[in-house]
Fold this protein.
Amino acid sequence: MQVKEDTATQILDAAERLVQSRGFNGFSYAHIASELQITKAALHYHFSGKAELGEALIARYAARFADALENVGSQFKDAPSRLNAYADLYLEVLRNKRMCLCGMLAAEYQTLPAPMQNTVVQFFADNETWLTRVLEQGQSDGTLEFEGPPSEVARMIVSGLEGAMLVARPLDDVAGFQAVAHHLLTGLRRTSPDTSQS
Amino acid sequence: MQVKEDTATQILDAAERLVQSRGFNGFSYAHIASELQITKAALHYHFSGKAELGEALIARYAARFADALENVGSQFKDAPSRLNAYADLYLEVLRNKRMCLCGMLAAEYQTLPAPMQNTVVQFFADNETWLTRVLEQGQSDGTLEFEGPPSEVARMIVSGLEGAMLVARPLDDVAGFQAVAHHLLTGLRRTSPDTSQS
DNA sequence: GTCTATAGGCAGATAGAC
DNA sequence: GTCTATCTGCCTATAGAC
């Protein structure tokens, strides 16, 4: 592994952390420049403008997330385990004291350049598609049980996890996030521990 | 009712709408001024700075929300109805194409002045307290059934609704929000409609 | 209460040297 | 690739007239 990443990657890393903690309207080229000890002008060499940097940011994030989903799919075979692993992806982001990149951008949606808006929407659509398939799988093999269309439940999972991150950060309550994730997912398990009489 | 509200109220109304749609870092005094057809300087007469305006904004929003919760408590007596009415408060905000004020500020939390941060946290705490009481009531009288501490379920409801708003706005999908709210709340009802054979 | 005028700073961005 | 220097514009905020 190289000791130092290339500048473009360093810029993306810094920008990503800044957006996930402060929002797209809450950071500037000056923030990144001072952190990397280079000038603002140098940033423009790598990313022509803030909008282009933002697009690159979402593209990399979405690609990384897609990879993570693929890993989840290969490491876990049953639907409940896949859902747990999915929630753990969010948990790791929160542990780094960050909001989901696209969750943050969703809040600022109305102020974003159109290309960024479209990519944010695509991110949520892709997540729901993946979740829908997992839910259908669990419903078919009997490991999951729920009412209504799987796509609606998928939306509930995405919404619940995004909202749990959103609320957990001001409250500085990682355990609260985990509790919400647990409640969201255990409600879908067919083999609930012991709710009624055996 | 008066034909024209006083200027301070008009400013709060405009600022509220702007923050709920664009975020605290996504609007400026210039936006409000042009909307109300007055100058930026006039705004400073009513609210000395953006931070003070922000504090006033949350204070009014929280007071209004507290009133709404009181109304819900007096209009509906059983826990499931109260939860439905609670979710409808969020639905109305979304119908106006807005994000919950404190949900938006939660995203921008790290960039907010300290007094605003504290009030945002208080908002969520108050909501969870109210919901916890409703959940305890429903659990006692048997209209609700769930596992784990009521406070955790309260957190799940707040998180789920906030997240559902967050995601619904970019997707422009009010129906999706309603579906999520339905799934979140029906999972708590003891008398589920007809999940198994009759 | 609202205005004009302006201060002082930071934003995103560019030109051109090295 | 990175720099210095600079531009233009918008930001929050203030002074002082009306």
Q: What stands out?
A: Residues 192-198 of chain A have pLDDT under 50 and may be disordered.
